Amino acid sequence: MSESRNVVIVTGIPGVGKTTVINTAVDKVKAEHDEEVLVLNFGTEMFSTASERGLVKDRDEMRKMETAKQREVQRLAGESIAEKAKDARVIVDTHTLIHTNNGFLIGLPEWVIRAISPKTIVLVEADPEKIALRRSDDPTRSRDEQASEAIDTHQRMCRAAAVAGGTLTGATVRIIKNRQGKVEQAGTELADTIME
Ligand code: ATP
Ligand code: AMP
Ligand code: MG
């Protein structure tokens, strides 16, 4: 690896397919390069603290918590992820903007993104109508129902937030389209970024 940084942060709005694309990419890296990738899910780190404190029962309730509580749990998760991400090839599965009851919460504020120091911030994007369908067709999660226009606005704002993260850390920003039924293609692009 010529690149000394070892972390790729993968972002995108709920239901776009981040976790699915990450799993596909990790399998590809294993099969084609015989390399392991450590996947750290930011929401899972936050949920472990939030549920221990009795604040939520379900990961999809966290974005409805008071903003100050979200920020506090986010800070702890960021510290834990930065510590775990010191070695190995790492992917962080997370969001740049969380749709809360009080506007968008910045997913990677300065103190979180500087600690993680990613080499690349990936934005997974898809057609807003397809995202709406993926949300409603996935019974395993309680994702918000949103009109395509609102989904489109959220995706556009996420581009700005990803660029802000790149500005703070020098990370590159890469957009990966997760086209309907084409998760393999998106997974290949992410695998290339991990192995760069
Ligand atoms: P969240 O931020 O809420 O965790 P996510 O971005 O991780 O969401 P996934 O859980 O990976 O999203 O995917 C949401 C749903 O979309 C799943 O049911 C998944 O199978 C489906 N999906 C993912 N990628 C595609 C694709 N390219 N074509 C069709 N369906 C897809
Ligand atoms: P996910 O499974 O990726 O949807 O994550 C579950 C929940 O964790 C999200 O809906 C958010 O409430 C929260 N979350 C994930 N990443 C972040 C982050 N970087 N900052 C704040 N909250 C986050
Ligand atoms: Mg996910």
Helix/strand layout:
Elements: E1 7-11, H1 18-33, E2 37-41, H2 42-52, H3 67-84, E3 89-93, E4 97-100, E5 103-106, H4 110-116, E6 120-125, H5 128-137, H6 148-169, E7 172-177, H7 183-195
Parallel strand pairs: 1-3, 1-6, 2-3, 6-7
Antiparallel strand pairs: 4-5
Helix pairs in contact: 1-7, 2-3, 3-4, 5-6
Bound molecules: adenosine-5'-triphosphate (ATP), adenosine monophosphate and magnesium ion.
Please describe what this structure looks like:
By secondary structure, this protein is α/β, with parallel strands linked by helices. It has 7 helices and 7 strands, in the order βαβααβββαβααβα. It has helices at 18-33, 42-52, 67-84, 110-116, 128-137, 148-169, 183-195; strands at residues 7-11, 37-41, 89-93, 97-100, 103-106, 120-125, 172-177. A 5-stranded parallel β-sheet has the order 2-3-1-6-7, sandwiched between helices. A two-stranded antiparallel sheet has the order 4-5. The longest helix is centred in the last third of the chain and has 22 residues, at 148-169. The protein starts with 6 loop residues before the first strand and ends with a helix. The mean pLDDT is 96. Adenosine monophosphate (AMP) is lined by residues 14, 42-43, 46, 59-60, 62-63, 70, 74, 93-95, 98, 105, 107-108.
